[in-house]
Amino acid sequence: MDLLLLNFANFDSLKLIYPLLLQGLQLTLLLAIVALPLSLLSGLTVAVMYSFSGPAIRRLMMIVIDLLRAFPVLVLLVLIYYSLPFFGLTLGSFTAVVVALVINNTGYFSEIFRAGLESIPKGQHEAAAALGFHKFRGMIYIILPQAVRKVVAPLASNSLELVKTTSIASLVALPELLRSARVAQEQTYNPTPLTAAAVIFFLMLWPFSHWVSRLERKAIVGRA
Length: 224
Description:
Blueprint: H1 2-8, H2 11-52, H3 55-70, H4 73-83, H5 93-118, H6 122-130, H7 135-150, H8 152-165, H9 177-188, H10 192-223
């Protein structure tokens, strides 16, 4: 037991490297704060465009959405960070990670929003037109609020996954929480920093995960 604590819960090592972990945590939160709203906005934009498009454009958009969802975000980051310079476009590590996260999650969020929009009865669209709303205004003020309420649970669940995915930043040497923990491990020759990073991730995400689970249960009960 003492050996286990010495290797995975060494407080002397933790005292030395905790500033590094806090720096990594700040960067992880910053990545999530920037990438999440952009992903939601781009996903919503794609879903609304889908609603106003004709059958041919819709089929094309569905192919693009499926490609975005199927393409591994790790591979996407490699292409953005290491391949774009060959075409004259060089992005910084932070920007490359945000772009990769946004592109990947646009596919998921757009599909969630699309499902929500299509779940609204046609009668609601007709009611908006009867009230004198232009098609776009009716979408924004009447249809969209109802659709968002129906998909809060999957939106929250996917947002949680996005926060977890910020750990890909370590691939381009961006010192987010996981990368900082690895650097701290190399400095202390002790895995305690990795344990601390895991605990931080758990404490940060568990309340949100618990809230998402409650939303999902309510959604199931509401459909029953």
